[in-house]
Specification:
The chain is mostly helical and 335 residues long. It has one domain: ABC transporter involved in vitamin B12 uptake, BtuC, CATH 1.10.3470. Helices cover 76% and strands 0% of the residues. The protein has 14 helices and no strands. The protein is globular and about 55 Å long. The relative contact order is 0.21.
Length: 335
């Protein structure tokens, strides 16, 4: 039975990967669409290509992509994390409190915030595994618990007196180029995730669970352990995005993460990550985050209400759900 299930898992992954041409065309289309928006806004949005705007656009994209990565890693196993924003906000506030109130050095404060984020992710995973509840329900509940706890402990007061050495990662340019160090951090994370999913057994196991969890369990994979790793990694990345947002905003504010849930799904969904699990696209998530940041920046410069960005994100997510279904049908998984 175990051998049969192993073959089933491998076959399912092969079917999903067999949509490679479709995925390549999707990435190419996404690249063309993003380039088209850049051309449009360069022509009609005054100041779009200025160094000042490009600096803030790329910085926003780096944060958006990191938020997308936090969701992508749990989508890979067929779960979701609705507490991404809550974790990012709580850990960002924790880092700010450590630096401002306790005088903890920025590097150590960020490391402790990342550890807290990872622990909160582990907590989500433990609830999912032990209660057998859907991750949607679990993380929806923990999002409320985490945010509520953070607001009670901090009394919703921001921490604004942060060290310049910490704020510099979001405020300085690299070698006179309008790129903040945050962009390099995001690209480093993208490289690591790309290697994990392409070249490690952990990445393959995560995708196998996302493709068919029951078959993966019966083939001998330690499903509980991998769920723990995926949610822990999601918490870690959400905490990283929280720290990045604090540096970009010059303050640790209770409002950080409040609007991340929809955005966290859009970047990976646009880029080709299956919302139902088993297939991810790291490069697609990078492009998806860049597209969202591009549209947001362009609309702002054209004095168009940012509410239209919410309309765009919602429409794109609905489209992604439809494409997800089509992709799984092409891969032979329609039910």
């Amino acid at each position: 039975m175990s051998a049969t299930r192993t073959v089933a898992v491998r076959t399912r992954l092969t079917e999903l990967r067999g949509t490679g041409l479709l995925r390549t065309l999707g990435l190419l289309a996404l690249l063309i669409i993003t380039a088209g928006f850049w051309i449009f806004f360069s022509a009609f949005a005054t100041g779009f290509t200025s160094d000042f705007n490009l600096f803030f656009l790329l910085r926003s994209a780096a944060i958006a992509v990191t938020i997308g990565f936090a969701q992508m890693v749990v989508l890979s196993i067929g779960d979701m994390n609705l507490s991404v924003g809550a974790i990012g906000g709580a850990t960002g506030m924790f880092a700010g409190w450590l630096m401002q109130v306790l005088g903890v050095p920025p590097a150590l404060a960020v490391l402790l915030a990342l550890a807290l984020g990872t622990s909160l992710g582990f907590g989500n995973a433990a609830l999912v595994v032990w209660t057998h509840l859907n991750s949607f329900i679990v993380t929806l509940a923990t999002a409320s618990l985490i945010t509520g706890g953070m607001l009670i402990l901090t009394r919703a007061r921001p921490f604004s007196n942060l060290p310049d050495s910490f704020l510099g990662i979001a405020q300085i340019e690299l070698g006179g180029v309008p790129v903040a160090p945050l962009v390099l951090i995001m690209l480093g994370v993208a490289l690591v995730l790309g290697l994990v999913y392409r070249s490690t057994s952990l990445g393959r196991e995560m995708l196998a669970i996302g493709a068919n969890r029951q078959a993966a369990r019966m083939s001998g994979l330690a499903v509980g352990r991998i769920v723990l790793v995926a949610h822990g990694l999601s918490g870690l990345l959400a905490a990283l995005a929280g720290a990045m947002s604090v540096a970009a905003n010059n303050t640790a504010s209770p409002g950080i993460g409040s609007d991340w849930v929809l955005a966290s799904f859009v970047a990976p969904a646009i880029g080709g990550t299956l919302l139902s699990g088993g297939l991810v696209s790291v490069s697609g998530t990078v492009l998806g985050g860049l597209l969202v940041a591009t549209i947001s920046s362009g609309l702002l410069l054209m004095n168009v209400s940012n509410f239209w960005l919410s309309v765009f994100l919602g429409a794109v997510l609905l489209l992604a759900v439809g494409l997800d279904r089509i992709t799984r049908t092409v891969g032979g998984a329609a039910s």
